Amino acid sequence: xxxxxxxxxxxxxxxxxxxxxxxxxxxxxxxxxxxxxxxxxxxxxxxxxxxxxxxxxxxxxxxxxxxxxxxxxxxxxxxxxxxxxxxxxxxxxxxxxxxxxxxxxxxxxxxxxxxxxxxxxxxxxxxxxxxxxxxxxxxxxxxxxxxxxxxxxxxxxxxxxxxxxxxxxxxxxxxxxxxxxxxxxxxxxxxxxxxxxxxxxxxxxxxxxxxxxxxxxxxxxxxxxxxxxxxxxxxxxxxxxxxxxxxxxxxxxxxxxxxxxxxxxxxxxxxxxxxxxxxxxxxxxxxxxxxxxxxxxxxxxxxxxxxxxxxxxxxxxxxxxxxxx
Length: 325
Ligand code: SF4
Hints:
The chain is of the alpha/beta class. The protein has a single domain, classed as 3-Layer(aba) Sandwich (Rossmann fold), CATH 3.40.50. It is globular and about 65 Å long. The protein binds iron/sulfur cluster.
C-alpha cells in the first residue's frame, strides 16, 4: 500500500471580478492531479514557477483545503478531516520551505526553534527534549550541537539555516516530508551538500519525500520518480531515469533541452517549442494546456483534453500523440 495516495486533486482559488465583484473566476492552480508515493520513496515534482507545484505540496499536507479529489495517507482519507483530527498527521508529515531566511523565527534561539514541535506534541520532559534536539542537530551535521543551541538564525549562514529548517522537519521523526525548492535560495556551493544530506536522511530514516523543484538537474540527487507539471496538470510521470533519458511529452523534451548538454546527440525533440508563457490558470481554455506552445499541436489538441496513457511500465504521458486511433 502506498504511504500517500492523491486522487484527482483540485485546488481552485476563487477570484471576484467586475463591477460590485459580481463575477467569480477560479485560479485552477492544481487541476486533476493523481499520484502515489511509497514509504522511503522520493517523487520529484518539476515545473516552471506558477505551474501549481507549491500549491500541490501544501494541499497534500492539508495546509490548503482542496476543492475536490482525495488525499489518502497511510490508508486514512484526510481530505475532509477537521484540523483537530489531524494532529497525528501533523506529527508524521512535515515541510521544508524554500526560504531558510523567513521560515525560522528570528526572535528564538535554535534550541527553542527545534524544541517547540516537541512541546506542542507533548513529547518528553525538558532533559529528553534537549537530548533529541542535540541528536537532530548531529543528524543535519551541525556539530558540535552545543555550539548551535544558543545561536539565533541571523548568526548562521544560509546553508546552516537550511540545515536547521531540515532539523525542525525531522525532530518529530516524520515518515513524509514535502521539500519545497529547499536549495533554490542557496549558493551553488552549498546546494549539492544540502541535496546529499536529504538523500542520506531519506536512505537512513526511510523517509518519503515530495521534492518540489523548477530545476530537473537537482532532482537527480535523490528522486526515484519524477512528475512533470505544466499549468496545474501532471503531463508526464515515470521512473526518474526513464523520463530524463527518454522524455516523451513535448514539454518534458523542452525542459530537458534547457539543461546544458555538450553532446549534440542528446536532442530530445525534432521540433522546437514555440516561445511564450504558460496559459493563465484563470479559466484556462479547453484542450491541452500546452497547445499554444506545442510544435505538434493539432485541432484535437485545441478542443479536447488529452487522456493519460501508460507508454511503458509505470511511465505515463498526457498527450494525444500517444493515443492509438
Ligand atoms: Fe502537444 Fe497535442 Fe500532446 Fe498537447 S496533446 S502536448 S498539444 S501534441
